[in-house]
Every structure is written in structure tokens, then in C-alpha cells.
Amino acid sequence: MDQITIKNIIKAFVKNFSLLLTENMLYPPRHPNVVAQTNHVMAAAEVVFNVLDEIFLTIREGQFVFDGIPLYELKHTVMKTTQLFESKNILCIRFTKNFTQLELSVFTGLLADKSHALDAEALQIKLGTLDIFNISVEKKSSLNKDDDKENFLPAEKIYGSSIEANKLIFNTLLKENTIPMDIVDKVAQDITNIITRDKTYSLALSSLRDYDDYTFTHSANVAILSVALASTILNDAEILTNLARAALLHDIGKIRIPQEILNKPCMLNEEEWRLVRNHPILGAKILEQQKEINKLAVIVAYQHHMKYDKSGYPDNETSCGLHPLVLIVNICDVYDAITSKRVYKKPFPPDKALSIMMRLIGCDFEPRLFKIFIQLIGVYPPGTLVRLNTKEIAVTRKVQTQALLLPEVKIIANESGSLLEKPLIINLSDEQQNSSNRSIEAVLDPKEENIDIISYI
Ligand SMILES: [Fe+2]
Ligand SMILES: [Fe+2]
């Protein structure tokens, strides 16, 4: 089962569990609502336990966190539950495969019981005295130090958390007409932190194109790429975080365009195209209405389809050029769109995407920034699956700025396609390391080759 499906079934469990707690707070244990909701939780748990042996959740900053990624999408649904857990100093909760309906009922009853408000420690002792061993809670100090030591997410979780955040932004805007800026800020901060710490690795994460729906992956990719590109020319964390925020929200106007138009598998007609071209204006209007919005986000949403030569849309009738940070988002936006899979097109491999974009230097893209972009991501960005001239299969690692066609690679399979027990790291531009003159012959699709790239980066 893939990671997206696992996360979705965990979300269903968490949502049902939170609803059960709410019912428990409102009604006595045998009330039909409580009984019905208990059954829903057990059913959701059964689905999870078909693929996992336990459900381990932590609670951090008002969110449930699963496998290191905050389940932002559930923020509003679970708010009361996370508040209850935090008030009891409960920092994690574990359901193991064999938990019973009785154990669940006793556990939720204890949590919801206001007359015996138990903190994490007292609750765990009580569970032990009642022979409940398949559901347990832990307080903060008993967590692994590594889990708790940093205020920001580990690198490999940033991408997933950005996508979760985008889902929450999308749903909240649709339902309540507001953008949860606290979540946007948190993710923008995480993106800036990780890029400052490890640019190469972050870029590799953004090349995992098939992770989820384009609606949610695209803005995360554009934010990661834009901050990475901007960080090569400026060193101001506040500006970089503002840019991350703006890039995460650059296409927010698309929320007002019918999905069937955005996902139409064939050419748009004139009226549909007019609607799509309106999304920068719609986006800027949505953002202007938000409290505490940074002006840059409004500018980026409005200008991100205007081109360097002042063509593009909406019409650039002013005499002044584009905001310098918009020029960065423009490049990253187009690159991600070309290299992503859409209903109406196959993804272009990075080398082909760059060769298409190179023809537009000076018209669509600012020349100096484009040059820096290529030096940043190379012709084969970190995390690209490639076949070498020796027919070996490799994953690219580091860009070599002096030899963009010859990055450092990790060879993972031999010429007959068998995976190597010990992958071999070679800098293709280093004559000594690459004495057999290996070079990149073609870019491969990890899905077609059935290779999980993330385990190699
Ligand atoms: Fe756009
Ligand atoms: Fe975009």
C-alpha cells in the first residue's frame, strides 16, 4: 500500500477517534451515538491494522502527527481532542493491533471524565490497573530525544507536511473563506529552515513528482524551488520565509475555477481559457482580504504569469517591471508545471524541460536568474533516476556546477538491472572516480522502473 493511502486511512481513524471523544463528552457511555461512533472507530482501526501493527500518534502544536508529518488537514476536526490531550500533558498515544472495543470504551471514558481529570502519568497507571495494555499514552519526557529536540521538521517530512498544509488551506478557504495563515507560516518556516540546512536534499524531495495530487504538490514544489533559488543570491531568512509563504499561495486563485476546467484532458475553449487566465487576479483578491497577509504574497499571486518581457497575463500596463522575487517564482512555476504529470500531458524529464525553457530566456525568464537556476538544479537535478552509458541505473545526487551534465550519482543497479547490495557513489565529473567514462544516457521514470527514489536520497 502506498504512503498516500496509508496516510488517508490513518486520517480516517484519527477523525473517527476524535468524534468518539466528542460524543463521550456529550453523552453517557451507552448512548446510541457513543456506541455507533465506537463501531466506526473499530472499523477504521481494522482497515489500518490490515497494513500496520500499531497506530502511533504524537500531538504537537495542536496537531496530530503521524510518521513525523502533522495531519494539518484534520486541524479543525481534531482541535478539541488535541486540546484535551495537551491539557493532560499527553504527547503521544499508541493503539496496538489487538485493542478491543472494551479497551477503547474504557480509555475514551477515562479521557472524557471531567470528575477524575487524569494527567498522562495517572491515566497510564490507571490503564495498567484495568489491564488495558493495547492502548497507551506517554507524556513528553518519555519521548525519544530525537523526536523532540528540534522545533522544526526533519528534511524528509517537509514535503509531506507542505502537501498536508495545502489540503488544509484549500478546504478552509472553500468552507470558511479564510486562509489558515498560522499553518502557512509554519510550513514556510520549515521550508526555509530545511533549505538553509540542506539545499541538495530539499531539491531532491521536490523532484518526487508523483507523490500526490498536482493541486497540492505543485505549490509545495514551487515554494521549495523558489526558496532554494533565492537563497543562492540572498541570505535574509525573513525574506526567504516571505517568499516561501508567497510561493505556497501563488495559485490560490485557482480555487475559484471549476475543477473540470483545470483538469480538462483536452484543449480549453476560449471561455474556459479566459477563466483560467483570471486566476492571478482572483488569487490577489483572495489574499488581499486575509488579515495579516504579507504584501509579497499578493504581488506574487498577481504577477506570477507575467513574463520578464512584460508579456503574459494579466496585462502588464505599468511602466515598472516585475518584482524581483516574482522573476524567481516564474522560473520555478514553469519548471514544475513542465516536469509534472497532468491529466492532459506526460511529465517532461528535467533535461527536456530545461531545453524548452532555455529557448525562452530573455522573453519569459530573466537571463541571469535562469543561469543560476540551471547551476542550482543542474541538467539532472538531485533525485533524478537515470540510465548510464554502461546501462547501469543510478540516482543523481549533487550538481557539479562546472560540469552540469556530469553530476555525482549513486549507482543502484547493474547493467542487467539487478539492484546492488551496496550502491556505489561516483562523481561523474571526477576523472579518477569515473575512470571508465560513465555518462548519463537517459532519464528514467521511477514508477515504470518500480524504484522507490526516496530510499536512495
Ligand atoms: Fe498560476
Ligand atoms: Fe503555478
Provide a concise account of the structure shown:
By secondary structure, this protein is an alpha+beta fold. It has 3 domains: 3-148, no CATH class; 155-372, Orthogonal Bundle (Hypothetical protein af1432), CATH 1.10.3210; 385-456, no CATH class. It contains 19 helices and 10 strands.
* Inertia-based shape: globular
Q: How does the major sheet shape up?
A: 5 strands, antiparallel
Oligomer: single chain
* CATH H-level homologous superfamily name of the largest domain: Hypothetical protein af1432
Evaluate the radius of gyration: 25 Å
What order do the strands of the largest sheet run in, or round the barrel if closed?
Answer: 3-2-1-4-5
Going by CATH, the architecture of the largest domain would be: Orthogonal Bundle
User: Termini distance?
Assistant: 21 Å
Spans of at least 5 consecutive residues with low confidence: 142-150
Mean pLDDT: 89
Bound ligands = fe (ii) ion
Which CATH C-level class of the largest domain is it? Mainly Alpha
Determine the number of helices (DSSP H or I, runs of at least 4 residues): 19
Counted beta strands? 10
**What count of structural domains?**
3
CATH topology of the largest domain: Hypothetical protein af1432
The helix/strand series, from N terminus to C terminus, equals HHEEEHEHHEHHHHHHHHHHHHHEEEEEH
Name the helicity range: 40-55%
Structural class: alpha+beta
